[in-house]
Protein backbone atom coordinates (compact mmCIF):
# COMPACT_ATOMS: atom_id res chain seq x y z
CA UNK A 1 0.00 0.00 0.00
CA UNK A 2 2.64 2.66 0.86
CA UNK A 3 4.49 2.44 -2.50
CA UNK A 4 1.20 2.62 -4.41
CA UNK A 5 0.28 5.76 -2.45
CA UNK A 6 3.74 7.21 -3.15
CA UNK A 7 3.19 6.68 -6.89
CA UNK A 8 -0.21 8.39 -6.74
CA UNK A 9 1.19 11.31 -4.71
CA UNK A 10 4.00 11.76 -7.22
CA UNK A 11 1.57 11.73 -10.14
CA UNK A 12 -0.77 14.15 -8.36
CA UNK A 13 2.08 16.61 -7.83
CA UNK A 14 3.15 16.35 -11.47
CA UNK A 15 -0.34 16.63 -12.92
CA UNK A 16 -1.41 19.37 -10.53
CA UNK A 17 -4.24 17.71 -8.64
CA UNK A 18 -4.61 17.19 -4.90
CA UNK A 19 -4.95 13.88 -3.11
CA UNK A 20 -5.90 13.86 0.55
CA UNK A 21 -5.56 10.46 2.16
CA UNK A 22 -7.62 9.63 5.21
CA UNK A 23 -5.93 6.50 6.52
CA UNK A 24 -7.85 3.97 8.57
CA UNK A 25 -6.47 0.95 10.48
CA UNK A 26 -9.54 -1.17 9.70
CA UNK A 27 -7.73 -4.47 9.71
CA UNK A 28 -7.28 -7.76 11.52
CA UNK A 29 -5.31 -6.15 14.37
CA UNK A 30 -8.21 -3.81 14.96
CA UNK A 31 -10.57 -6.79 14.97
CA UNK A 32 -8.45 -8.53 17.61
CA UNK A 33 -8.28 -5.34 19.67
CA UNK A 34 -11.85 -4.00 19.36
CA UNK A 35 -13.87 -6.97 18.09
CA UNK A 36 -14.77 -5.32 14.76
CA UNK A 37 -12.93 -4.76 11.49
CA UNK A 38 -14.32 -1.24 11.24
CA UNK A 39 -16.24 1.08 13.56
CA UNK A 40 -20.04 1.12 13.46
CA UNK A 41 -19.98 4.44 11.57
CA UNK A 42 -17.29 3.22 9.14
CA UNK A 43 -19.51 3.51 6.08
CA UNK A 44 -20.49 7.10 6.98
CA UNK A 45 -16.82 7.98 7.48
CA UNK A 46 -16.10 6.98 3.88
CA UNK A 47 -19.27 8.24 2.23
CA UNK A 48 -17.99 11.70 1.31
CA UNK A 49 -14.69 10.40 -0.11
CA UNK A 50 -14.05 10.24 -3.84
CA UNK A 51 -12.80 6.68 -3.65
CA UNK A 52 -11.75 3.96 -1.24
CA UNK A 53 -8.26 2.50 -1.68
CA UNK A 54 -8.10 -0.82 0.14
CA UNK A 55 -5.00 -2.81 0.99
CA UNK A 56 -5.25 -6.60 1.25
CA UNK A 57 -6.72 -7.68 4.58
CA UNK A 58 -6.85 -10.90 6.55
CA UNK A 59 -4.76 -12.77 9.09
CA UNK A 60 -4.44 -16.47 9.96
CA UNK A 61 -5.36 -15.44 13.53
CA UNK A 62 -8.98 -14.72 12.61
CA UNK A 63 -11.51 -16.51 10.40
CA UNK A 64 -11.38 -15.02 6.91
CA UNK A 65 -15.17 -14.68 6.70
CA UNK A 66 -14.80 -12.08 9.46
CA UNK A 67 -12.40 -10.16 7.22
CA UNK A 68 -14.78 -10.20 4.27
CA UNK A 69 -18.14 -9.80 6.02
CA UNK A 70 -16.78 -7.29 8.55
CA UNK A 71 -15.26 -4.94 6.00
CA UNK A 72 -15.17 -5.66 2.30
CA UNK A 73 -18.66 -6.99 1.64
CA UNK A 74 -20.52 -4.32 3.67
CA UNK A 75 -18.61 -1.62 1.76
CA UNK A 76 -19.47 -3.22 -1.60
CA UNK A 77 -23.13 -3.43 -0.62
CA UNK A 78 -23.63 -0.14 1.22
CA UNK A 79 -21.99 1.78 -1.63
CA UNK A 80 -23.88 -0.27 -4.26
CA UNK A 81 -20.64 -1.31 -5.95
CA UNK A 82 -22.45 -3.87 -8.02
CA UNK A 83 -19.70 -4.23 -10.61
CA UNK A 84 -16.33 -5.74 -9.86
CA UNK A 85 -14.12 -5.06 -12.86
CA UNK A 86 -11.03 -7.26 -13.02
CA UNK A 87 -8.65 -6.84 -15.97
CA UNK A 88 -6.07 -9.44 -16.91
CA UNK A 89 -3.37 -8.40 -19.35
CA UNK A 90 -0.14 -10.11 -20.31
CA UNK A 91 2.34 -7.39 -19.38
CA UNK A 92 5.38 -6.78 -21.58
CA UNK A 93 8.21 -9.01 -20.46
CA UNK A 94 5.98 -11.74 -19.02
CA UNK A 95 5.02 -15.09 -20.57
CA UNK A 96 1.68 -16.82 -20.26
CA UNK A 97 1.80 -19.87 -18.08
CA UNK A 98 0.63 -23.18 -19.59
CA UNK A 99 0.00 -21.88 -23.11
CA UNK A 100 1.79 -20.24 -26.02
CA UNK A 101 -0.52 -17.21 -25.91
CA UNK A 102 1.48 -14.09 -26.70
CA UNK A 103 -1.33 -11.68 -25.95
CA UNK A 104 -3.88 -11.70 -23.15
CA UNK A 105 -6.34 -8.86 -22.66
CA UNK A 106 -9.42 -9.89 -20.72
CA UNK A 107 -11.97 -7.96 -18.69
CA UNK A 108 -13.95 -9.95 -16.16
CA UNK A 109 -17.16 -8.17 -15.17
CA UNK A 110 -18.15 -9.80 -11.91
CA UNK A 111 -21.60 -9.25 -10.40
CA UNK A 112 -20.56 -7.96 -6.99
CA UNK A 113 -23.45 -7.64 -4.54
CA UNK A 114 -25.63 -10.74 -4.90
CA UNK A 115 -25.31 -14.27 -6.31
CA UNK A 116 -23.56 -16.90 -4.26
CA UNK A 117 -22.18 -14.37 -1.73
CA UNK A 118 -25.29 -14.43 0.40
CA UNK A 119 -25.90 -14.49 4.13
CA UNK A 120 -29.21 -16.28 3.62
CA UNK A 121 -29.17 -19.82 4.91
CA UNK A 122 -28.17 -21.48 8.11
CA UNK A 123 -26.76 -24.44 9.94
CA UNK A 124 -28.54 -26.77 12.31
CA UNK A 125 -27.78 -29.83 14.43
CA UNK A 126 -24.14 -28.79 14.82
CA UNK A 127 -21.85 -31.64 15.73
CA UNK A 128 -24.52 -34.30 15.19
CA UNK A 129 -24.54 -36.88 12.42
CA UNK A 130 -27.58 -35.16 10.87
CA UNK A 131 -25.88 -31.73 10.88
CA UNK A 132 -26.74 -29.70 7.78
CA UNK A 133 -25.99 -26.38 6.12
CA UNK A 134 -28.13 -24.46 3.65
CA UNK A 135 -26.73 -21.60 1.60
CA UNK A 136 -29.08 -19.65 -0.65
CA UNK A 137 -27.82 -17.79 -3.73
CA UNK A 138 -29.70 -14.65 -4.74
CA UNK A 139 -30.13 -13.67 -8.37
CA UNK A 140 -32.46 -10.81 -9.20
CA UNK A 141 -33.47 -9.70 -12.70
CA UNK A 142 -32.30 -6.17 -11.90
CA UNK A 143 -28.96 -7.42 -10.54
CA UNK A 144 -28.15 -9.69 -13.48
CA UNK A 145 -29.44 -7.17 -16.01
CA UNK A 146 -27.25 -4.32 -14.81
CA UNK A 147 -24.13 -6.52 -14.69
CA UNK A 148 -24.87 -7.82 -18.19
CA UNK A 149 -25.56 -4.32 -19.53
CA UNK A 150 -22.27 -3.03 -18.08
CA UNK A 151 -20.45 -5.93 -19.77
CA UNK A 152 -22.16 -5.36 -23.12
CA UNK A 153 -21.33 -1.64 -23.03
CA UNK A 154 -17.70 -2.55 -22.29
CA UNK A 155 -17.69 -5.02 -25.18
CA UNK A 156 -19.04 -2.26 -27.46
CA UNK A 157 -16.26 0.13 -26.36
CA UNK A 158 -13.61 -2.54 -26.91
CA UNK A 159 -15.09 -3.59 -30.24
CA UNK A 160 -15.07 -7.05 -28.83
CA UNK A 161 -16.97 -10.13 -27.94
CA UNK A 162 -18.73 -11.23 -24.77
CA UNK A 163 -18.74 -14.52 -22.93
CA UNK A 164 -21.31 -15.21 -20.24
CA UNK A 165 -20.09 -17.69 -17.62
CA UNK A 166 -22.82 -20.13 -16.68
CA UNK A 167 -23.48 -23.53 -15.16
CA UNK A 168 -27.09 -24.00 -16.19
CA UNK A 169 -26.64 -27.72 -16.76
CA UNK A 170 -25.96 -28.37 -13.06
CA UNK A 171 -27.46 -25.41 -11.21
CA UNK A 172 -30.96 -25.63 -12.50
CA UNK A 173 -32.74 -22.56 -11.10
CA UNK A 174 -30.42 -19.60 -10.81
CA UNK A 175 -28.17 -20.30 -13.80
CA UNK A 176 -30.91 -20.79 -16.43
CA UNK A 177 -32.34 -17.51 -15.06
CA UNK A 178 -28.88 -15.90 -15.46
CA UNK A 179 -28.73 -17.15 -19.09
CA UNK A 180 -32.26 -15.88 -19.83
CA UNK A 181 -31.57 -12.39 -18.48
CA UNK A 182 -28.22 -12.14 -20.29
CA UNK A 183 -29.96 -13.22 -23.51
CA UNK A 184 -32.67 -10.58 -22.98
CA UNK A 185 -30.01 -7.88 -22.61
CA UNK A 186 -28.16 -9.30 -25.65
CA UNK A 187 -31.16 -8.33 -27.81
CA UNK A 188 -30.23 -4.68 -27.20
CA UNK A 189 -26.74 -5.35 -28.61
CA UNK A 190 -27.23 -7.23 -31.89
CA UNK A 191 -23.70 -6.38 -33.07
CA UNK A 192 -21.99 -8.04 -30.11
CA UNK A 193 -21.17 -11.70 -30.50
CA UNK A 194 -22.20 -13.51 -27.31
CA UNK A 195 -21.19 -16.97 -26.17
CA UNK A 196 -22.57 -18.71 -23.13
CA UNK A 197 -19.86 -21.00 -21.75
CA UNK A 198 -20.00 -23.41 -18.81
CA UNK A 199 -17.70 -22.13 -16.07
CA UNK A 200 -15.67 -25.35 -15.91
CA UNK A 201 -14.99 -25.32 -19.65
CA UNK A 202 -14.28 -21.59 -19.45
CA UNK A 203 -11.69 -22.14 -16.72
CA UNK A 204 -9.92 -24.73 -18.88
CA UNK A 205 -10.09 -22.39 -21.88
CA UNK A 206 -8.66 -19.59 -19.74
CA UNK A 207 -5.61 -21.73 -19.02
CA UNK A 208 -5.12 -23.18 -22.51
CA UNK A 209 -6.36 -20.38 -24.81
CA UNK A 210 -6.52 -17.16 -22.78
CA UNK A 211 -6.01 -15.22 -26.02
CA UNK A 212 -9.49 -16.37 -27.15
CA UNK A 213 -11.17 -14.40 -24.32
CA UNK A 214 -12.25 -10.76 -24.26
CA UNK A 215 -15.06 -9.50 -22.00
CA UNK A 216 -16.55 -12.05 -19.60
CA UNK A 217 -19.63 -11.48 -17.45
CA UNK A 218 -19.92 -13.77 -14.46
CA UNK A 219 -21.73 -14.22 -11.18
CA UNK A 220 -20.09 -13.19 -7.91
CA UNK A 221 -18.42 -16.54 -7.17
CA UNK A 222 -17.61 -17.56 -10.74
CA UNK A 223 -16.13 -14.13 -11.48
CA UNK A 224 -13.97 -14.25 -8.37
CA UNK A 225 -12.53 -17.68 -9.11
CA UNK A 226 -12.09 -17.12 -12.83
CA UNK A 227 -10.30 -13.79 -12.46
CA UNK A 228 -7.88 -15.23 -9.88
CA UNK A 229 -7.12 -18.06 -12.27
CA UNK A 230 -6.62 -15.73 -15.25
CA UNK A 231 -4.23 -13.50 -13.32
CA UNK A 232 -2.11 -16.55 -12.44
CA UNK A 233 -2.14 -17.54 -16.13
CA UNK A 234 -0.84 -14.05 -16.97
CA UNK A 235 2.00 -14.38 -14.47
CA UNK A 236 0.90 -14.02 -10.86
CA UNK A 237 -2.05 -13.15 -8.71
CA UNK A 238 0.26 -10.48 -7.29
CA UNK A 239 -0.30 -8.25 -10.31
CA UNK A 240 -4.09 -8.37 -10.52
CA UNK A 241 -6.18 -5.25 -9.77
CA UNK A 242 -9.85 -4.94 -9.01
CA UNK A 243 -12.30 -2.03 -9.18
CA UNK A 244 -15.52 -2.31 -7.17
CA UNK A 245 -17.66 0.18 -9.03
CA UNK A 246 -20.81 2.09 -8.33
CA UNK A 247 -21.30 3.01 -11.99
CA UNK A 248 -23.86 5.73 -11.21
CA UNK A 249 -21.27 7.43 -8.98
CA UNK A 250 -23.81 8.03 -6.24
CA UNK A 251 -21.34 6.45 -3.82
CA UNK A 252 -17.55 6.05 -3.73
CA UNK A 253 -16.08 3.10 -5.59
CA UNK A 254 -13.42 0.88 -4.03
CA UNK A 255 -10.11 -0.17 -5.55
CA UNK A 256 -8.06 -3.09 -4.24
CA UNK A 257 -5.67 -5.79 -5.38
CA UNK A 258 -7.38 -9.10 -6.19
CA UNK A 259 -5.07 -11.02 -3.87
CA UNK A 260 -5.37 -11.52 -0.12
CA UNK A 261 -2.86 -10.50 2.53
CA UNK A 262 -0.44 -13.40 1.84
CA UNK A 263 0.36 -13.98 5.53
CA UNK A 264 3.07 -16.49 4.61
CA UNK A 265 5.24 -13.62 3.34
CA UNK A 266 4.02 -10.87 5.69
CA UNK A 267 6.84 -8.61 6.83
CA UNK A 268 9.46 -10.14 4.52
CA UNK A 269 9.35 -7.21 2.11
CA UNK A 270 8.92 -9.46 -0.93
CA UNK A 271 5.28 -8.88 -1.90
CA UNK A 272 4.59 -7.77 -5.45
CA UNK A 273 3.13 -4.24 -5.24
CA UNK A 274 1.81 -4.26 -8.83
CA UNK A 275 -1.74 -5.40 -7.93
CA UNK A 276 -2.03 -2.45 -5.52
CA UNK A 277 -0.41 0.01 -7.95
CA UNK A 278 -2.61 -1.12 -10.83
CA UNK A 279 -5.68 -0.79 -8.56
CA UNK A 280 -4.46 2.76 -7.87
CA UNK A 281 -4.28 3.39 -11.61
CA UNK A 282 -7.87 2.17 -11.98
CA UNK A 283 -8.87 4.59 -9.22
CA UNK A 284 -7.12 7.49 -10.97
CA UNK A 285 -8.84 6.56 -14.22
CA UNK A 286 -12.23 6.39 -12.49
CA UNK A 287 -11.62 9.84 -11.00
CA UNK A 288 -10.96 11.35 -14.42
CA UNK A 289 -7.15 11.17 -14.33
CA UNK A 290 -6.70 8.76 -17.21
CA UNK A 291 -3.38 10.31 -18.23
CA UNK A 292 -1.87 9.79 -14.76
CA UNK A 293 -3.32 6.26 -14.67
CA UNK A 294 -1.60 5.37 -17.95
CA UNK A 295 1.71 6.77 -16.71
CA UNK A 296 1.50 4.51 -13.69
CA UNK A 297 0.69 1.33 -15.63
CA UNK A 298 3.35 2.21 -18.23
CA UNK A 299 5.91 2.73 -15.45
CA UNK A 300 5.49 -0.67 -13.77
CA UNK A 301 5.21 -2.37 -17.14
CA UNK A 302 8.54 -0.85 -18.25
CA UNK A 303 10.24 -2.08 -15.08
CA UNK A 304 8.90 -5.60 -15.64
CA UNK A 305 9.79 -5.51 -19.35
CA UNK A 306 13.37 -4.67 -18.36
CA UNK A 307 13.44 -7.96 -16.45
CA UNK A 308 13.18 -6.49 -12.94
CA UNK A 309 10.56 -8.48 -11.08
CA UNK A 310 9.60 -9.70 -7.65
CA UNK A 311 9.85 -13.32 -6.51
CA UNK A 312 6.36 -14.38 -7.63
CA UNK A 313 7.39 -13.57 -11.21
CA UNK A 314 10.72 -15.37 -10.95
CA UNK A 315 12.78 -12.30 -10.07
CA UNK A 316 14.79 -11.31 -7.02
CA UNK A 317 13.63 -7.77 -6.24
CA UNK A 318 11.98 -6.96 -2.93
CA UNK A 319 8.88 -4.77 -2.67
CA UNK A 320 10.92 -1.64 -1.93
CA UNK A 321 13.47 -2.18 -4.69
CA UNK A 322 10.76 -2.86 -7.28
CA UNK A 323 8.73 0.14 -6.11
CA UNK A 324 11.80 2.40 -6.25
CA UNK A 325 12.34 1.29 -9.85
CA UNK A 326 8.72 2.25 -10.65
CA UNK A 327 9.11 5.63 -8.91
CA UNK A 328 12.32 6.21 -10.89
CA UNK A 329 10.40 5.54 -14.13
CA UNK A 330 7.69 7.97 -13.03
CA UNK A 331 10.31 10.61 -12.28
CA UNK A 332 11.83 10.43 -15.78
N1 LIG B 1 -8.10 -12.35 3.26
C1 LIG B 1 -8.00 -12.98 2.01
C2 LIG B 1 -8.66 -12.16 0.96
O1 LIG B 1 -9.17 -11.10 1.20
N2 LIG B 1 -8.59 -12.65 -0.26
C3 LIG B 1 -9.19 -11.97 -1.35
C4 LIG B 1 -10.63 -12.31 -1.35
O2 LIG B 1 -11.01 -13.40 -0.96
N3 LIG B 1 -11.48 -11.39 -1.73
C5 LIG B 1 -12.86 -11.64 -1.70
C6 LIG B 1 -13.60 -11.18 -2.86
O3 LIG B 1 -13.07 -10.50 -3.72
O4 LIG B 1 -14.79 -11.49 -2.92
From TrEMBL:
SMART domains: Iso_dh. Residues 1-326 form the Isopropylmalate dehydrogenase-like domain. The keyword Manganese applies. Keywords: Manganese, Metal-binding, NAD, Oxidoreductase. PROSITE patterns: IDH_IMDH. Pfam families: Iso_dh (PF00180). It comes from the Bacteria. InterPro entries: ICDH/IPMDH (IPR050501), IsoCit/isopropylmalate_DH_CS (IPR019818), IsoPropMal-DH-like_dom (IPR024084). Its cofactor is Mg(2+); Mn(2+). GO terms for molecular function: magnesium ion binding; NAD binding; oxidoreductase activity, acting on the CH-OH group of donors, NAD or NADP as acceptor. The keyword Methyltransferase does not apply. PANTHER family: D-MALATE DEHYDROGENASE [DECARBOXYLATING]. This is Isocitrate/isopropylmalate family dehydrogenase. It comes from Rothia santali.
Amino acid sequence: MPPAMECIDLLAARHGFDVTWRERDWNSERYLRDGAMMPSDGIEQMADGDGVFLGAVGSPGIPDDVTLWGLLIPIRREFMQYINLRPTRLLNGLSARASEADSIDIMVVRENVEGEYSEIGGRVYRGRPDELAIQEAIFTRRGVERAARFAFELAVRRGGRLISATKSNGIIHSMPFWDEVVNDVAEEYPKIEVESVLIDALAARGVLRPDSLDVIVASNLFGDILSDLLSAVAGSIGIAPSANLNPEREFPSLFEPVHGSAPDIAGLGVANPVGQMWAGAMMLDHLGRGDAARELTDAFERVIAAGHTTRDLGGTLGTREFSDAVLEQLNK
